[in-house]
TrEMBL record:
Transmembrane segments: none annotated. Residues 118-250 form the GGDEF domain. GO terms for molecular function: diguanylate cyclase activity. It holds the Pfam family GGDEF. PROSITE patterns: GGDEF (PS50887). CDD domains: GGDEF. SMART domains: GGDEF. Residues 248-275 form a coiled coil. This is Diguanylate cyclase (GGDEF)-like protein. It comes from Anaerosolibacter carboniphilus.
């Protein structure tokens, strides 16, 4: 068995709080359990011996993550490691210190049946204009921005939340049990920390948030959050100093407030609230219509200006 393990370049395993296998990148459960026994992983779980340990010519790394106050153990085997040289862990992004796209894909692929229902909200954060920063000021400056945003996220979320660096300038956070006002406070806290840390870099981010009932609805929530993030980015690209832009932001804020209030009322599920829900729904429709018309008008203005139609006047 050990010989087979050494023949593998790597092995990635997830265990639940009781040490049962949730996921294994290679081999069946019997083979995985044999490996865990031979590499003393079960003994290390009992003693809390986390970190990197040599195992023959390989290394076995063990870390613990918390999902809704439940422990999950992340085990990685890296085979044929040169003496004194350890490779980066497959599930961690080395620059940000957050979990990476690999970890996200593992979760999505396996649906984490043991922890379904532990999350109900998804937040996406995107660094504004990072590509332009990389092109104009160099990737070293862009890397600083990534680290600042990552640190701000880590310092703002709770232990039971999970944050990922999803892409070059994009981050995803899975949350649970937060009310709308608490989610807004979290978003504000992340922005405040970014502002505190980026005095010389002027870092700005866009955000989108959406809720879901279970993992089957997670990808739909991802798309909704991504759409909201995109809408915020588009708003920022419009004329910042214009009166209509400020009015657009005010409408967006009003729209979010009505939607949050409506969601809270729907959650109460009381018959006497039907009239209130209907009234708020109508108000939300009206605000969305005004917002859409104004956004279309401003986008048309920008498009015409780019085409050189300077003879057209705008009110």
């Amino acid at each position: 068995m050990i010989g087979n393990m050494y023949g593998m370049k790597s092995r990635f395993i997830l265990l639940d709080k009781d040490g049962k296998v949730v996921y294994g990148s290679q081999g069946n459960k019997d083979e995985i359990n044999a490996f865990l026994e031979e590499s003393h992983v079960y003994d290390r779980i009992k003693t809390g011996d986390f970190g990197i340990k040599k195992w023959g010519d390989s290394q076995v790394t063990m870390e613990r993550i918390f999902v809704n106050n439940q422990s999950l153990y992340v085990i990685e085997l890296i085979a044929d490691v040169q003496a004194g040289r350890f490779s980066s862990m497959a599930y961690k992004d080395m620059m940000s210190g957050l979990y990476n796209r690999n970890m996200w894909e593992y979760m999505m692929h396996n649906k984490f049946t043991e922890v379904q229902g532990c999350f109900d909200t998804l937040m996406i954060i995107d660094i504004d204009n990072l590509k332009e920063v990389n092109d104009s000021e160099g990737h070293a400056v862009g890397d600083i921005q990534i680290r600042i945003v990552s640190e701000s996220i880590k310092e703002s979320i709770r232990e039971e939340d999970i944050a990922f660096r999803y892409g070059g300038d994009e981050f995803v956070i899975l949350l649970n049990g937060l009310k709308n006002k608490d989610i807004q406070k979290l978003m504000d806290r992340i922005r405040e920390k970014i502002n505190e840390k980026s005095k010389d870099h002027g870092i700005h981010v866009s955000m989108g948030v959406s809720s879901f009932d279970n993992f089957s609805g997670l990808m739909g929530a991802f798309q909704k959050a991504d759409n909201l993030l995109y809408a915020e980015k588009q708003c920022k690209k419009l004329q910042v100093g214009s009166k209509k832009y400020k009015e657009l932001l005010k409408l967006r804020k009003n729209m979010d407030e009505i939607r949050n209030h409506l969601n809270d009322l729907m959650g109460e599920n009381k018959d006497h609230l039907n009239e209130d829900v209907l009234g708020l729904s109508r108000e939300l429709d009206h605000v969305i219509y005004r917002y859409s018309m104004m956004e279309i008008g401003l986008k048309s203005k920008e498009l015409l200006k780019k085409q050189g139609n300077s003879n057209i006047k705008y009110k």
